[in-house]
Write a structure and sequence with these properties.
Layout: H1 2-29, H2 50-61, H3 72-116, H4 123-148, H5 153-165, H6 169-209, H7 215-242, H8 252-314
Length: 315
Amino acid sequence: MFKYKIILSSLVGAVSVALAFSASAQINVNAGVNVNAGVNGNPIPSGVDSATVRARIEARYGTSTPPMHGMASTTRMSSTTRAENQQQRIVKVQGQSDTEITARIDSLNKLLSRIGSMVKISASDKASLSSSIQTEIADLTSLKGSIDTDTSTSSLKTDFQSITKSYRVYALVLPQASITAAADRVLDIVSSFNTLSAKLQGYITAAQSNGVNVSTAVSAMADITAKISDAGIQANAALSKVSGLQPDQGATTTLEANTAALKGAQADIKVATADLAAARKDVTTIVNVIKDSMKITTSASASVTASTTASTTTR
């Protein structure tokens, strides 16, 4: 009988220990459960000292109260974290926006200087283009101020997108001004070619009068006249295509029209540039003919002088 009591006592002790570990494990999993209430609302099993359970919790969490997962304290912590993350995103977008806007303003200011040096564009066209660029600079500066004070991610997103969607500095304003400047350059070169052509024609006529074969030069001069005339036509066509363009403000039809106009104007400038390159080659051809004619004339003159000298000496 005594033997059975010992066995029973051992079993009770083993069960108590198992229940204690089970309770501890459940508390670890369900950390939000009140210790005094036991596990899952059940009383702490008999034979397990609550002080022991608390000691185990303190050893694991550093406190007798387990973390309140999913409770109000965690919610407050998450809200704080979300606010901090949102602020970080705002600061990041603001920094990126400032960089984008500053780059555009710098490019526009450079264009203003370039427009000031244009010589063939009419004063009214220059004034109109300069005014458009200055307006863009003012608007971008204002947008930068708005973005820097944005506290809402939604309004910041809208403002950031407007840098490219509304202002179109890189998509419209810069290409428009660059094409205008290129056209002005072409027209200036055409003017220089016209002055040069008149001088070259004088040399050709003189060489022809001296009996020099200038057919190659005459052909080259005809080509110069045609090329510089076409270059001027192409440059003016490019100006006509881009002079009245305005930002599309998100309108697809306007965007497509602007894109087509810019591409057409760029093609015009490309043709004009090719015309001028061909005219330069023609100038080289004419100069070579003139040089050869001068050699021939000089040689003939030398021969006449030598002959005259010899004849005079003989006499």
